[in-house]
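## retry 2 of 3
previous attempt timed out at serialization; input unchanged, resubmitting
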Amino acid sequence: MPPKYSSSSGQVVHHIVLKPHHKWLIGSFTTLIVIFMITLSAFSYMIYTKQEINKKVLEKKIADLKAETNENINSLSESMIQTKENIGTIGSQIGVINKEFATLKASAGEDFSGIIETSVSSVVSVRTDVSQGTGFIIQSSGYIVTNAHVLSDENGNLASGIQAVTYEQGTKNAEFIGYDGVLDIALLKISGTYDSLNLGNSNDVQVGERVIAIGNPLGLQFSVSQGIVSAVHRKGPNGLNYYIQTDTALNRGNSGGPLINNNGKVIGINNFKVGDSENIGFALESDYIQQAINDIYKEKYGENLI
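## retry succeeded, writing output
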């Protein structure tokens, strides 16, 4: 029986006394709770630590992937640029090969078809309010050479409204740069970029070699006629022995057009013919074309054009 004690009020109070095995059970339960809490905390810490490690690993993988992606993009961009350059180079090489093949055909026989194909796009029809003639592009940025008389009225005054019609039938307003009245050469400028014709060395011109003239005779745009060089260093109306004589058919409207050899080079600019004669035409030799163009350009800009 547990001991009884009396309170000050006279009531009997019973005190419970724990037995040893009860104390052991309570102590063990408390210990288990503490151990559980420690284990749970340790486990939670381990999970948190693992998640942090995994997060850092994932972040590193993402960073590496971004770096690799950027490197691949840069490499791809460089490859695309290189491919574009290669395509441009191949295109240029094909153009050169085509021109060389055309020259070879013309040199081997009488087939000027390839030369015509590569040259005609550089020829223009020159129109004013009073006349019409021909010109050709001498520099890729749109500089055109023609005869000065194509741009003049009957009184020798400069005509207005100068236009150039390209082979693709584009009509361009032409800027008048200047002229050489003695050699009958004028220089014009149109906007845009074009294929140009190259001047040959007129000292290399041989009597009997085959040539073609491209022009707009009687308004028939981009007509081609073929002939030979009949003579060189003929005297012109200006008293100068600067002209190639050719039996290539030249008519009104051919003035200012190119006389082209079988190498695709301009050896003269078609200038005039003798009265109503058949197939006796004259072209200013290419060396003097270059001299006149550079003199005109230098007077305005202080340097040579070609």
